[in-house]
Write a structure and sequence with these properties.
- With 514 residues, the protein is of the alpha/beta class.
- Helices cover 44% and strands 14% of the residues.
- The strands form five sheets. It has a five-stranded antiparallel sheet, covered by helices on one side. It has a four-stranded parallel sheet with strand order 4-3-10-11, sandwiched between helices. A three-stranded mixed sheet has the order 13-12-14.
- Strand 10, helix 8 and strand 11 form a beta-alpha-beta unit.
- Helix 11 crosses helix 13.
- The longest helix has 26 residues.
- The chain binds one RNA strand of 74 nucleotides through helix 1, helix 6, helix 8, strand 13 and helix 11.
Length: 514
RNA sequence: GGUCCUGUGGCCGAGUGGCUAGGCUGAGCUCUGCAAAAGCUCCUACACCAGUUCGAAUCUGGUCGGGACCUCCA
C-alpha cells in the first residue's frame, strides 16, 4: 500500500502530475533540484481591498504548498506584494493608481499600501493560508528591476524613448516564441493594432513597458539611468523570482487572466536576461465568476472580502465564514470556473459543518481506548475504507484534485458517525485501518486542506457556563421536567447554540456559524 | 473579429468508452419525551444533431448557448 511518507520526488511509486499551462497537458513533476521546490505566485496589488476572486489563487496555491511539503519537499514559496503603482491604461497618459487614490484618501502612498497589505494579511490569516517563505515588495526591489532592464537593453531587446524603456517584442519574436504560453500568435498581435493615443513611443503595439517616465505629479518615483520614473508591471515578478529562486525555477502560479500579457512578458524578459526559460511548470487557476461573469473591478461585480465576512453587501444573503470560502474553493477543481451564489455557498457551509463534525467525532474516538484487532470484523468495509483513504494521495497527485478527495471524505462520514453511535463497532476495522483513518483524515483535513473549526468554542469560561446549563438540563430531563429542559434548549437555540441529546444520554452542543 | 475553454439531475459540482462520484435541497423511514443531529432508503442526469464503436456523458464532425484572453485584472 502506498505510504504517505514520501520518497522525495523521483523514485516514488505514484508520481505527482501537474497540468502545465506551457504544454497544455499533465506532466510528471520533477523539480530541478531533487528534494527542493521553488514556487512563485503572483501576489496582490495593494492599492485596494482584496475580493472574493483573489481568494482563489491564494487558497489553491496554499494547498499546493502544503501538499508539496507533505510529499517531503523543502519548498521556497515566494509571493510578491505589488506596491509600486503602474500605469492605469496603456497608451494614455501614465498615471499611478496608488498615488492617485492616495490623494483622494489623503494618505501617503506608503500608508495606503501598508493599510491594504495589512488587510490582505488579515484575510490570509482568516483563510488559514500559510505565509509564504518570502514576501518581497516591488518597491523594495527597484534596484534589481533597473539592473534587469539594463541587461535587456544591453542585449538589444529594449529601447529607450523619452525616459521610458520598452521591450522589443518584434525582435524577441524573431528568435523566440512569444506567445508560447498564452497561445498568442505574434503576427495577430501586431495586426490587431488599435490606434491608441500615446502609442507613438512604442515601435510596435505589442511592445510593453519596462520602465515608465514619471510625470511631475507622480508621487511614487525613482531615479534610474533613464530619468525619474517607475517600473513596468511585468518586470517586478521577473526580478524578484530571479533573485530568490534563481534563473530557472520549478513552479510559477497565478490566475488564468495573467497568462497574457503578464506571464508571457515575464518569460520574454527573463529569457533575455538569464538566457534560459524562467519556469518549468506554469500553473494557473481559473476564475471565480458571479452570475457567470468574472469578478473584476472593471465589471463592477466585486464582493470584497470584508463584505463577504460581514454579509454587508446587497448580493449577500448572509455573512460567510472564511473557512466556508476555503471549502467552497476546494470543492472544485482549480482549473474550472467556480460560480458564486448564495445557494452554492450555503451548501458549502452545511457540507463543511457535516464534515467537520464527523472529523471531530473521529478525533474523539481516538481518545477512548477501543479494542482493536489485527483482523477486521468487517472485511468488506475495511477494504472499502482502505481504498478511500489510499485514494487521497492518488487524487492529490493527479493535479491536486481536492474535489475528489473531499468526495471520498464524505463517503467516510457515515461510517465515522456510525462508529460514534456504535451502530458500527470500531472493531469492524482492523487496528491498522482504523489508525490510518485517523491519521489520514487529520493530515488531509487540517494539514493539507488547512481546514479549521468554524466556531470558536474554545473559550474556557463559555465552556464552563455551557457545562452548567447542560447539567441543569440533564437533571431536569431525568425528572421528566421537560418544560425546563426545553426552555433551556430553546433559549440557547435563539442565541445560536444548538444542544443535541446523544444516544448515550450525554448532551453535546455546537455554536452556529455567524 | 482572432485564440482558447466550456455546456452534467432542482442547485453546486467529479467523471480514465462499458460497472449509476460527492455535496446541498426535497420525500419517506429509524432512533428520540419532543426536537436537533445522525443513520438508512428514494428522486439515475449528461445542450442539440449526425458519425465512429458490440457499447459514448466520455472519441470525431457540425449546430446552438455560456465564458476567458486579446486592455488594469487572481
Amino acid at each position: 500500500m502506498e505510504s504517505k511518507s514520501s520518497s522525495l520526488g523521483d523514485g516514488g511509486k505514484a508520481e505527482l502530475k501537474v497540468f502545465n499551462s506551457l504544454t497544455r497537458q499533465k506532466e510528471v513533476f520533477k523539480p530541478i533540484t531533487p528534494g527542493l521546490v521553488g514556487m512563485y505566485v503572483c501576489g496582490p496589488t495593494v492599492s485596494g481591498e482584496s475580493h472574493l476572486g483573489h481568494s482563489r489563487p491564494y487558497v489553491t496555491f496554499d494547498v499546493v504548498y502544503r501538499y508539496l511539503m507533505h510529499l517531503g519537499y523543502k519548498v521556497r514559496y515566494v509571493r510578491n506584494i505589488t506596491d509600486a503603482g503602474h500605469f492605469e491604461e496603456e497608451g494614455r497618459e501614465a498615471e499611478d493608481k496608488i498615488s492617485k487614490k492616495a490623494v483622494l484618501e489623503k494618505l501617503e502612498p506608503m500608508e495606503l499600501v501598508q493599510k491594504y497589505t495589512n488587510l490582505f494579511h488579515w484575510a490570509m490569516n482568516l483563510f488559514n493560508c500559510l505565509p509564504p517563505s518570502i514576501e518581497p515588495t516591488a518597491t523594495g526591489h527597484i534596484v534589481e528591476q533597473i539592473n534587469m532592464i539594463e541587461k535587456i537593453i544591453a542585449a538589444g531587446y529594449a529601447y529607450v524613448v523619452n525616459g521610458s524603456v520598452y521591450f522589443d517584442v518584434m525582435k524577441y519574436a524573431q528568435d523566440h516564441d512569444y506567445g508560447k504560453l498564452s497561445g498568442r500568435v505574434i503576427d495577430e498581435l501586431l495586426e490587431t493594432t488599435r490606434d491608441l493615443e500615446g502609442q507613438e513611443e512604442k515601435r510596435n503595439k505589442a511592445d510593453f513597458a519596462l520602465w515608465k517616465n514619471a510625470a511631475p505629479e507622480h508621487i511614487m518615483r525613482w531615479k534610474s539611468p533613464w530619468g525619474i520614473g517607475f517600473p513596468g508591471w511585468h518586470i517586478e515578478c521577473s526580478a524578484m523570482s530571479t533573485k530568490y529562486l534563481g534563473d530557472q525555477f520549478d513552479i510559477h502560479g497565478g490566475g488564468m487572466d495573467l497568462l497574457f500579457p503578464h506571464h508571457e512578458s515575464e518569460i520574454a524578459q527573463s529569457t533575455i536576461c538569464n538566457h534560459i526559460a524562467p519556469v518549468r511548470y506554469w500553473i494557473h487557476n481559473n476564475m471565480i465568476t458571479i452570475n457567470g461573469r468574472k469578478m473584476s473591478k472593471s465589471l463592477n461585480n466585486v464582493i470584497k472580502l470584508t463584505e463577504l465576512f460581514s454579509g454587508n453587501h446587497p448580493m449577500l444573503e448572509k455573512a460567510y465564514h472564511p473557512m466556508t470560502i476555503r471549502f467552497f474553493i476546494l470543492q472544485t477543481y482549480y482549473r474550472s470556473t467556480l460560480d458564486f451564489s448564495n445557494e452554492a455557498l450555503q451548501a458549502a457551509e452545511k457540507g463543511l459543518k457535516r464534515l467537520w463534525e464527523a472529523y471531530e467525532n473521529l478525533v474523539k474516538l481516538q481518545a477512548a481506548s477501543y479494542e482493536l484487532r489485527e483482523t477486521p470484523g468487517d472485511i468488506e468495509l475495511d477494504a472499502r475504507i482502505s481504498k478511500l483513504l489510499a485514494e487521497f494521495d492518488e487524487f492529490m497527485k493527479d493535479d491536486f484534485s481536492t474535489a475528489k478527495v473531499l468526495a471520498n471524505m464524505f463517503e467516510l462520514v457515515p461510517v465515522i458517525n456510525s462508529m460514534k453511535d456504535k451502530t458500527i463497532p470500531v472493531s469492524a476495522l482492523s487496528a491498522r485501518t482504523f489508525q490510518l483513518l485517523q491519521t489520514q483524515m487529520k493530515l488531509f483535513v487540517e494539514e493539507i486542506f488547512g481546514l479549521k473549526s468554524i466556531t470558536e468554542a474554545d473559550n474556557k469560561k463559555l465552556q464552563g457556563v455551557m457545562q452548567l446549563l447542560v447539567d441543569i438540563r440533564k437533571e431536569a430531563r431525568a425528572r421528566k421536567d421537560f418544560v425546563t429542559s426545553d426552555n433551556i434548549r430553546n433559549q440557547l437555540q435563539q442565541l445560536g447554540i444548538a444542544l443535541k441529546d446523544e444516544r448515550d444520554g450525554s448532551i453535546s452542543w455546537s455554536i452556529d456559524t455567524p
